[in-house]
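Streptogrisin C, pasting as requested.
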Amino acid sequence: MLRSSAVTAGFALALTLVATPAIAHAGPGGSSAPESLYAQAKAQAAAAAQPEPGLIDALKRDLGLTGEQAAARLVNEAAAAKVEPTLSRQLGEHFAGAWVTGPTAEFVVATSDSTKVSAILKAGAQAKLVKHSLATLDAAKARLDELAGSAPRSIPSWYVDVQNNSVVVLARDTAEAQSFVDGSGLDASLVRVEASSEEPKPFYDVRGGDAYYMGGRCSVGFSVTKAGSQGGFVTAGHCGDVGTATQGHNRVAQGTFRGSSFPGNDYAWVEVNSNWTPTGVVNAYNSGILPVRGSTQRAVGSSICRSGSTTGYHCGTISQHNTSVTYPEGTISGVTRTTVCAEPGDSGGSYISGDQAQGVTSGGSGNCSSGGTTYHQPVNEILSVYGLTLAGGTTPPTGCSGYQNTYNGSLSSNQNAYQPGTGGYTAAAGTHRICLDGPNGTDYDAYLQKLSGSTWTTVAQGITPNPDEAFTYNGTAGTYRVRVHAYSGSGSYTLGLTRP
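Structure tokens follow.
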């Protein structure tokens, strides 16, 4: 790592960061010098309770680290968090932010005053001399916050980037964003605009198996759509009466029971508000997120699995269809009997075989410790009674014919796919033609991206509030790819692509 006795703007003075015990080191002439503040904090962090093996495994998997790097990173991160407030106070108005970097999270502190560099080095961190203090950057960001009401919708985010000593404005339309920044009256050296395809929104997806609340707790069956409605989900009738308000798994206001039948039947549907998006998936807890692609009823003896907010995901087999079961409240007819276990709170949750929805949890006997018998109300009856459609598609769309290449795939809400792959395709100069056919009732978007160095930049896009998109782009030779984004809704799509 490069070392230097001089510091210039934007240049980091690096010290090797090694986890060492908190002892004094011999100085010139054999004298002892106290260990740096950061080294002491690392020693304390290393002596603390060891991290759970699951955390180390997750860091190895998701950050591409070795076990040793992951362990060192956790120590260094904890030490940096402890030392940063002290250095911030010492540097005062010249503090320009702090961060960790590299696989093992080396600690860097920035300052806008060259006379403060020695204090950073003495504390044991790397030093970086920059132009703007953190207070200056925070003030610039606060000015943009004041103007948020007039910001173009093509700007998804702005933030203080301490590593690059600037305020960053992300934008799907960079020209529009630059005009917004120019009108803010801020020093041009403080703010930079970066192209981005981000379209953030609250992550309030409706998923089968998730909890919802209405005074008590039940579970979502399957997400549904309905013409002229926001859509919602099917569940058990004994969970609520028509007009009952619901809250989602996060206790955020969610929807209202629009139909309910119990006893005699045990089914209902809840219409959600605009903060929630029905998605064609089931939360299978430890088994992942499962797509729902239809509702073909499986034969007696077939395997079937149930998801619910009390016991998670369990499987068994179908014992009988067209069963009548008597509860204290009365008899329920036309349900399916299974060997899957369930417990209170699982009511209304999803029964699924493969990717085919089967029904919603009604009741049963036993529990998931000793086993038991359960009953579910068939989903197709609920869909028919209330005029509902499962969210997601049963078969891939067949549109976008006549294109050079056709690609099929399936997405859940807010997921992305890249066609013909993350590496893209090589094209000559000329016109690209893109067609996207998404599932009915969803909002799918397509973005044509071009590789520039190591960065993918969006050069054209189709982002209407519809499932289908079509556009062309006349570009130079290079490497391109198409990002398909499920803005809302889930299911299968077809992408048509003609390349020059």
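Note for the archive: Residues 67-91 form the longest helix (25 residues).
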